[in-house]
Write a structure and sequence with these properties.
The protein is 46% helix and 9% strand. Helix 3 crosses helix 5. The protein has 2 domains: 73 residues, Rossmann fold (3-Layer(aba) Sandwich), CATH 3.40.50; 75 residues, no CATH class. It has a 3-stranded parallel beta sheet with strand order 2-1-3, sandwiched between helices. The chain has 160 residues and is mainly alpha-helical.
Length: 160
């Protein structure tokens, strides 16, 4: 594994090649990092991280020219994910990683899950659901914001 964070020299850097482009790889599967390692080592300066949080931290400090980001990190994969996004106000969701992984046959299943949730919670249509739990939809937005802040503080976990 070539994951690293911090000021150490980039993995795969060739000190004899000036002004190499810097690349960051963020993927939770070691096999993909190893794959990139085969093609990049000696040709480009690169770092690899296995979590999104560490990837963000490294991107800020390393300032890469290019980032390869695992397309299966947080995204929409189920009807429940679509519902959560819609309730928060998203008028569109990204299903690309789910469809690439499991094929277009997932669409009817996801739509069925959304429809079942809407019936169970007495929503007549998607538009009615859109943004119904967003800050803009509550009577006291400031109280909503404070409550979310308190929840964030209570659930905060220090990054490793």
């Amino acid at each position: 594994m070539r994951a690293s964070v911090g000021p150490e020299p980039p993995v795969g850097a060739d000190p004899g090649v000036p002004d190499q482009h810097k690349i960051l790889i963020v993927d939770d599967e070691e096999k993909w990092i190893s794959f990139f390692d085969l093609f990049l080592e000696g040709r480009y300066s690169f770092k690899a991280e296995t979590t999104l949080a560490r990837g963000v931290a490294t991107a800020r400090s390393y300032q890469p020219d290019l980032i390869f980001l695992d397309n299966i990190f947080p995204g929409v994969h189920t009807g429940a994910d679509v519902v959560k996004s819609a309730l928060a106000g998203a008028s569109a969701v990204m299903l690309a990683s789910e469809l690439l992984r499991n094929g277009a046959d997932r669409i009817p299943t996801i739509l069925g899950e959304v429809g079942a949730w809407m019936v169970e919670h007495e929503y007549e249509n998607y538009q009615q659901m859109l943004g119904s739990l967003s800050q803009k939809s509550v009577p006291d937005p400031a109280a909503y914001e404070r409550a979310n802040y308190i929840k964030a503080l209570k659930t905060f976990k220090q990054l490793p």
